[in-house]
Amino acid sequence: MSPVVASVSAPSSPRRGAFVVPVGCAIALAVAGPLLGNYASDFIVKVMILSIFALSLELLVGMTGLVSLGHAAFYGIGAYVTVLASGNEGGNFAVLLVLSMGAAALYALFVGALSLRTRGVYFIMVTLAFAQMAFFVFHDTKVGGGSDGIYLYVRPALGALDMENRSVLFYVVLASLVFTYGLLALVRRSRFGAALAGIRVNEQRMRAAGFPVYGYKLAAFVLAGALAGLAGFLLASRDGVVNPELMAWHNSGEVLLMVILGGLGHLRGAVIGAVAFTLLKEIFSTHAVMGPLADHWQLTLGIAIIVFVALLPKGLIGLVQRLSPKGGA
Amino acid sequence: MDFGTFLVQCLNSVQYGLLLFLVASGLTLIFGIMGVINLAHGSFYMIGAYLAFSLAPLFGDQFLLMLVAGVVLAAIFGYVLEWAFFSYLYQRDHLQQVLMTYGLILVFEELRSIFVGNDVHGVKVPAWLDGSFALGNVMSYPWYRLFASAACIVLAAGLYYVVNRTRLGMMIRAGASNRDMVRGLGIDVKRLYRIVFAAGVALAALAGMIAAPMSSVYPNMGASVLIICFVLVVIGGIGSITGALVASLLVGFVDTFGKVFFADLAGIGIYLLMAIVLIWKPEGLMGRRP
């Protein structure tokens, strides 16, 4: 039994003005939106969707200390439900959004209820296994078109809110990112968030203090699942197609990498990680930059991952903090 | 399903289960003793299968000799890999181990695609194991599959003997429970770990080599076997080799008969099994409560 530590450290309370940079970025994106070309706009939408996905995992890994290696399942389910519930005539934006997030949350409830009975490395294995189960359901059966996936014939719409329109898509994704970031920032400061931080630091102590630890972790797991479902809904609306690869474990590994790459324990870390990772992958697979090595981007990416984890255990945020003279940018 | 088919499926289940056990025992060895969660373990299985594919033409009918050569190569590879890479992972937390070994998988997969390509290959069953064993007209069963089962049983027994009855096994078990104590006794823990790791790699590669003539050799085989191994480690229980054996056989039966009865949903059977075990005994069939 670990000795009783003198003080229960509250989650490091965010500094005043910590919201200046994120809000500034959001405003800059909102203003720049109409000025962007197709390529840039597409790329930014992709990165924003991945940021939401990474933020949802940060809630588990960074805030609660639960390393899930099956997070892509909820992302994929959100995307699949969006397409499956659209039908040939297309679906109502609001209904599809609720359905996809709800379905992802429901599966998260099932997976979380079971996997949270284990801990540590077994939790990693169980979450991965349940994600593979979801993968096989869509891969091996005809429910979602098998291994080819299915197309979304008409993108979700509700009045003027038509995802077929590029700029509407851009602003919906941006609003979703702001919503997710804001929600998680609130969660961090709430009593619930403090409890999660306590669980991360010392679960035994939280249990001894009378906190229903299992319930808190399950709530975090379900919320993270729902937010991943939101990212899936946006992805399906953007791409117009879904396939089982969305749920493949490579995707779970990549999103985990984004969270770590950016820096654990910071919301902005997840976003920075998503941006950095997407850029890195883009660069590694571009012939103009990498030459013939671009065909083997998995090799360079793999080596980059190993080097990053070896040299930057605290992620890019840690690097910024190390480089800044005051030790805390 | 007539009795003969049923018998054949039972034999298939046992054979598949034993093969999985071989891979899982290497995973358990590495995790149980060194505390490293190694996502790249499936890659060692894949490397074994590709070793069989590359070595088979060289050795012709000398199948056993080929297995020995492959195991030696895999063990050397594991030894070097531990020295160059995994020895730095022991001090890291699980999260970083997961990520770095995930990076390794990408490297292995891409190297495979560069050197061997992405085609699906077959490996020939050696002539002396070709053909089937017939039991009257009830059933007939390929000799090679019987050989595979026998080989796995011999290996499992050997592993059990080494871990539980030899001085090396004693050091391994002691090292698992208290590393510093073992070092204090003057045992070279670093070297011990390197040997255990090389053995784990060799076991996975051997399983891959044995599997190659039965299932084709294909790019994703590492990932699929890794996840099945995770499932059976969870079912079997923490750090229990016996648990892993029981779970392997269970998973073998569920998967084989699942494919017979529910072709479409066969992939899900073992996960349902895992879910049921988690509801009933979260610590696994033979695990101790943490």
From TrEMBL, chain A:
<feature type="transmembrane region" description="Helical">
    <location>
        <begin position="17"/>
        <end position="37"/>
    </location>
</feature>
<dbReference type="InterPro" id="IPR001851">
    <property type="entry name" value="ABC_transp_permease"/>
</dbReference>
<dbReference type="GO" id="GO:0005886">
    <property type="term" value="C:plasma membrane"/>
</dbReference>
<feature type="transmembrane region" description="Helical">
    <location>
        <begin position="255"/>
        <end position="280"/>
    </location>
</feature>
<keyword id="KW-1133">Transmembrane helix</keyword>
<keyword id="KW-0472">Membrane</keyword>
<feature type="transmembrane region" description="Helical">
    <location>
        <begin position="301"/>
        <end position="320"/>
    </location>
</feature>
<dbReference type="GO" id="GO:0015658">
    <property type="term" value="F:branched-chain amino acid transmembrane transporter activity"/>
</dbReference>
<dbReference type="InterPro" id="IPR043428">
    <property type="entry name" value="LivM-like"/>
</dbReference>
<feature type="transmembrane region" description="Helical">
    <location>
        <begin position="168"/>
        <end position="187"/>
    </location>
</feature>
<feature type="transmembrane region" description="Helical">
    <location>
        <begin position="214"/>
        <end position="235"/>
    </location>
</feature>
<keyword id="KW-0812">Transmembrane</keyword>
<dbReference type="Pfam" id="PF02653">
    <property type="entry name" value="BPD_transp_2"/>
</dbReference>
<keyword id="KW-1003">Cell membrane</keyword>
<feature type="transmembrane region" description="Helical">
    <location>
        <begin position="93"/>
        <end position="114"/>
    </location>
</feature>
<protein>
    <submittedName>
        <fullName>Branched-chain amino acid ABC transporter permease</fullName>
    </submittedName>
</protein>
<feature type="transmembrane region" description="Helical">
    <location>
        <begin position="121"/>
        <end position="138"/>
    </location>
</feature>
Automatic annotation (TrEMBL), chain B:
<keyword id="KW-0472">Membrane</keyword>
<protein>
    <submittedName>
        <fullName>Branched-chain amino acid ABC transporter permease</fullName>
    </submittedName>
</protein>
<comment type="similarity">
    <text>Belongs to the binding-protein-dependent transport system permease family. LivHM subfamily.</text>
</comment>
<keyword id="KW-0813">Transport</keyword>
<keyword id="KW-1003">Cell membrane</keyword>
<feature type="transmembrane region" description="Helical">
    <location>
        <begin position="98"/>
        <end position="115"/>
    </location>
</feature>
<dbReference type="GO" id="GO:0005886">
    <property type="term" value="C:plasma membrane"/>
</dbReference>
<keyword id="KW-1133">Transmembrane helix</keyword>
<feature type="transmembrane region" description="Helical">
    <location>
        <begin position="224"/>
        <end position="253"/>
    </location>
</feature>
<feature type="transmembrane region" description="Helical">
    <location>
        <begin position="44"/>
        <end position="60"/>
    </location>
</feature>
<feature type="transmembrane region" description="Helical">
    <location>
        <begin position="66"/>
        <end position="86"/>
    </location>
</feature>
<feature type="transmembrane region" description="Helical">
    <location>
        <begin position="143"/>
        <end position="163"/>
    </location>
</feature>
<feature type="transmembrane region" description="Helical">
    <location>
        <begin position="16"/>
        <end position="37"/>
    </location>
</feature>
<keyword id="KW-0812">Transmembrane</keyword>
<feature type="transmembrane region" description="Helical">
    <location>
        <begin position="260"/>
        <end position="280"/>
    </location>
</feature>
<dbReference type="GO" id="GO:0006865">
    <property type="term" value="P:amino acid transport"/>
</dbReference>
<keyword id="KW-0029">Amino-acid transport</keyword>
<dbReference type="Pfam" id="PF02653">
    <property type="entry name" value="BPD_transp_2"/>
</dbReference>
<feature type="transmembrane region" description="Helical">
    <location>
        <begin position="192"/>
        <end position="212"/>
    </location>
</feature>
<dbReference type="InterPro" id="IPR052157">
    <property type="entry name" value="BCAA_transport_permease"/>
</dbReference>
<dbReference type="GO" id="GO:0022857">
    <property type="term" value="F:transmembrane transporter activity"/>
</dbReference>
<dbReference type="InterPro" id="IPR001851">
    <property type="entry name" value="ABC_transp_permease"/>
</dbReference>
